[in-house]
Amino acid sequence: MNEKTTAELEHLRGLIDGVDQQLLHLLRKRLDLVAQVGTVKHAAGLPIYAPQREAAMLAKRREEAKIMGIAPQLIEDILRRLMRESYLNEKDVGFKQIKTDLGSVVIVGGKGQLGSLFQQMLKLSGYQVNILDKDDWQQAESLFADAGMVLVTVPIAITCELIREKLTKLPKDCILADLTSIKTEPVKAMLEAHSGPVVGFHPMFGPDVGSLAKQVVVVCHGRSPEKYQWLLEQIAIWGARIVEAEPERHDNAMQLVQAMRHFSTFVYGLNLCKEEADIETLLQFSSPIYRLELAMVGRLFAQSPELYADIIFAQQASQHAISDYLDNYREALALLKRGDRNEFIKQFETVAKWFGDFAPQFQRESRIMLQSVNDMKTN
Ligand SMILES: C=C(O[C@@H]1C=C(C(=O)O)C=C[C@H]1O)C(=O)O
């Protein structure tokens, strides 16, 4: 580089630094305004997440960007990232308490990660929360005595037994709820053990989400929904979307969404391990989609083996879904072995047709994710 170029670059980079600093000041200003919105929402009991406002705002900014010669997707990306920050910050002011005369909440298994998250959300909403973990059963009677709600979040393998043996003497009006990732058996057990209001939940996210905004919570009604309607409202204030489901339909979906998927991820990792794949090398040669795939597989093994064993072993019927997968894998492998390229293409087209409009939709969605994966690279 000659001196002139160096000087020119230095000058321009100085100007860019100045603009970035202005951006920082603007961000500070925006965060402060959002904090004020948080306070107003808290007082009024409005949810953190306001999808209509977001959609309207994004549409306007996209239009304005176009006129200014800025890619609409650029401002959309930036605003979406800022809005994520808003959800996290609005959480700090707490949430309006919908039910003020509940009595206490007892979380059975509250030292687990999901239990801790719900404990935090309930406390941020003004509820008094007590934890009953495995060594605390001698206090159970006194804790249950003034409980307005008992929330069960223990490993799946012991959930039903615990409900049947230990939760039979709750106060009559106490709500009995659970967070187990299967629903048919736990809801049945709760209905048998307790004659008061019963409701099953399955939060469709891990404990590391940060904010519940835009997350999904599946609810399976048990008994007396009017008695726990407030809880659904409370969860909505946390920003989550409630999806109602019959326990059986939910459990069937989970055989694919959870058991089969986690199992195939497990086998993927097992295979890499047995093949003694060198992850460093794989990463060096990885495309963004492969990096994302490795991240999806690798993150499983950063978590608790017990949790995944519980999820995979929870339903007998998952074995059928997993066996079907193996059969399809074998058939596809046979195709490959006999070099039947035409049949492969035919089946590919059948599947593509079956995915229909979802295929291009998923392509668009993943394109944005892949660009973020690429952005994260540091060299
Ligand atoms: C700040 C608000 O809350 C959330 C955050 C938004 C933002 O950061 O712009 C917009 C809508 C809401 O999802 C609001 O409702 O205006």
From TrEMBL:
UniProt-listed Gene3D superfamilies? 6-phosphogluconate dehydrogenase C-terminal like domain, Chorismate mutase, NAD(P)-binding Rossmann-like Domain
Q: For this chain's UniProt record, which GO biological process terms are given?
A: chorismate metabolic process; tyrosine biosynthetic process
Which keywords belong to this entry? Answer: Amino-acid biosynthesis, Aromatic amino acid biosynthesis, Cytoplasm, Isomerase, Multifunctional enzyme, NAD, Oxidoreductase, Tyrosine biosynthesis
- InterPro entries referenced in this protein's UniProt entry, alphabetically: 6-PGluconate_DH-like_C_sf, Chor_mut/prephenate_DH_T, Chorismate_II_sf, CM_dom_sf, CM_II_prokaryot, CM_T, NAD(P)-bd_dom_sf, PDH_C
> What GO molecular function terms would the record report?
chorismate mutase activity; NAD+ binding; prephenate dehydrogenase (NAD+) activity; prephenate dehydrogenase (NADP+) activity
Subcellular localization is given as:
Cytoplasm
User: What pathway does this protein act in?
Assistant: Metabolic intermediate biosynthesis; prephenate biosynthesis; prephenate from chorismate: step 1/1; Amino-acid biosynthesis; L-tyrosine biosynthesis; (4-hydroxyphenyl)pyruvate from prephenate (NAD(+) route): step 1/1
Q: Where is the Chorismate mutase domain?
A: 3-94
Q: What is its main location?
A: cytoplasm
At the top level of its lineage, which domain of life is listed? Answer: Bacteria
Checking SUPFAM superfamilies in the record gives: 6-phosphogluconate dehydrogenase C-terminal domain-like, Chorismate mutase II, NAD(P)-binding Rossmann-fold domains
Q: Which residues form the Prephenate/arogenate dehydrogenase domain?
A: 103-366
Q: One cellular component GO annotation, for this chain's record?
A: cytoplasm
Catalytic reaction(s) noted: chorismate = prephenate; prephenate + NAD(+) = 3-(4-hydroxyphenyl)pyruvate + CO2 + NADH
- Name the family the entry cites: In the C-terminal section; belongs to the prephenate/arogenate dehydrogenase family.
> What is the name attached to this protein's record?
T-protein
Species in which this protein is naturally found: Shewanella morhuae
What is the name of the gene encoding this protein?
tyrA
